[in-house]
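Hi U.,

Before I forget, here's the chain from the pilot set. I'm dumping it here mostly so it's searchable later in email.
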Amino acid sequence: MVKERARILVVGGGYVGMYTALRLQRRLKRELQRGEVEITVVTPDPYMTYQPFLPEAAAGAISPRHVVVPLRRVLDRCHIVIGEATAVDHAERTATITTLATEEEGTGGQRLPYDQLVLAPGSVSRTLPVPGLADHGIGFKTVEEAIGLRNHVIEQMDIASSTRDPAIRDAALTFVFVGGGFAGVEALGELEDMARYAARYYHNVQPEDMKWILVEASDRILPEVGEEMGRYTVTELRRRNIDVRLQTRLESCADRVAVLSDGARFPTRTVVWTAGVKPHPVLAATDLPRNGRGRLTCTPELSIEGTTHAWAAGDAAAVPDVTAGEPGRECAPNAQHAVRQAKVLADNIVHTLRGEPLQTYEHAYAGSVASLGLHKGVAHVYGRKLKGYPAWFMHRAYHLSRVPTFNRKARVLAEWALAGLFKREIVSLGSLEHPRAEFELAAGGKPSQDPPDNPKGSS
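Structure:
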């Protein structure tokens, strides 16, 4: 039984936010029924995105709705607020929240009081002041971006197939990916695989006509899988005629021309930016301690250092790695740690409410797996190195076991089974991004916010 009524505020609905709230509502089921505890989750989206499946969603192997987990269904004992925390005053135990109705109400953000705070807003894309990036770059962090990129790639193939201008055709069939981490490599591998398959349905577009370019500033890609597997990945990608450029930076993409630091210039209509992430901006609008990289300074118990009743984990938190042999090491900000940290974090909140001793987060990094397209992958798990089909199979098996809820597991497994029996679905649904465009045109108006190369907003 808790000592006093507790209002628990969870900021963020990603890995840490969802798994923490899910465990809290299980551990505090009786307290919630008696009204002794109240759990509020503030999140900009009503769902949690399982990001490791974004590349397969972009390639059409998994339906977009199966990559996300509806929070209202899973967190049925929590109060879900669709909005964002813009500031946190922990000294006063209040958070400033804006919701979808804030602008219409005209009253500004509302102050939400709390007794226990879980700050897990995650991260945002880390961009650089590259000319043209804000105008032409495409991110790959959300399901909307993944499906939008899929539509975009197929539309570029449609443009290349229909144009008589060689320059337009060449730019449409040139795809530049910046960043050699998991997001960039997996997205490139899956989309190149999909486009290669789709080319068989175009009478004048061949796989050899397309240019796929991976740009990485360091001297290796996929550092998480080890140096040997990273070299193998480079070899595998180049064998597929993918141009991998290491120790190279994107210096400009203005006027739809990608200019690289090695002097190369590629006219292109596709620049995908996956060059890392940075902590969410809300962390700077708090009175909580942060380290030099802007992440919240945490203790091994996942409380925010120097405070009480405030907790953090995941991308937003700098958590000491107690399993490391050297002091000062921090846990990597990845999903493997985030899911496990959420469990300890939730348990420690329960321990705090019940006056029990806290537990320390301790997890040795197990390794990593990455997909490079259908039946292709690399893995370095518990010291064992795998490549090709075995690594790809391990990638799918691991993530199937980790995707939340039995419902999602069954649906994803069914889609994979059907994909093995039938051909891929290659279709662009670009009109979904501008659903009113057709009606506005019919009503005599001018379609708004449509991409310049697709004036009607449909493929």
